[in-house]
Amino acid sequence: MTWYELTRWYAYRRIEHTSMRFYTIVFPLFFATVLTSGVALLPGEITLTGDAGFVTGIIGVISLLPGFYIASLAAVATFGGEHMDETMPAPAPEVFIKTAQTEGPEELTRRMFLSYLFGYLAITSLLLVAICFVVGICAPAIGAVITGHWPIHAATINNCLEVSLVFCLSFVMGSILVTTLHGTYYLMERIFQPN
Fold first, then answer.
1. Model confidence pLDDT, tens digit, residues 2-48
2. Domain ranges of the chain
3. Rounded to whole angstroms, how far apart are CA atoms 47 and 49?
4. Which residues cross the membrane (predicted)?
């Protein structure tokens, strides 16, 4: 296996089209900013781990999604219909593809676009769950180390780390949410419309 093959799930975020920036950056960034601001402005401390913690809540919601996304990917790959294999309307989204013979940008078909979309969602949701497990395990130890080394500034440092973590996790959650909504629209409505 090559690095190219192992990172193809991320190709969705590399699709080049004028509107893709809104789905991959702008909307998730807005979601993360609003959620993080709301959490940071709440009185009291941020609860990251534990039964009512932010990370535990993410695991509870996101851990259900990878199976759904993998099933959607399988369905998209086997959908019938000639329109699924037509190049998307101009200007068609493009993504860099490397084969044994060639490499370069290729215009996407609807099937390819949806395959990249659901592949991205499947792996991103799996990685988010894994990251949340690691955070849940490591956060108390990191907090203890910070308190031991910098007791005067421990609360401020921990707060900054917690807010930064909430922002990063919220960005990934926002990306999953926006991409899921985009994929749902595409499967419910767009694939039935002519180019």
1. 888 899 999 999 999 989 999 999 999 999 999 999 888 888 777 77
2. 3-192
3. 6
4. 21-42, 54-79, 117-143, 163-188
What pLDDT band is residue 118 in, cutting at 50, 70 and 90?
Answer: very high
Which helix or strand (DSSP H or E) is residue 103 part of? strand 103-107
At 36, list the tokens.
């993080």
Alpha carbons 169 and 120: distance in angstroms, whole number: 16
**96-105 b/e (C-beta count within 10 Å ≥ 16 → b):** eeeeeeeeee
CA 133 remoteness from chain centre: 16
Name the burial class of residue 29, with classes exposed (0-12), middle (13-18) and buried (19+) by CB atoms within 10 angstroms of its CB.
middle
- Work out the widest C-alpha separation in the chain, in whole angstroms: 66
Token pair, residue 9, equals: 């799930």
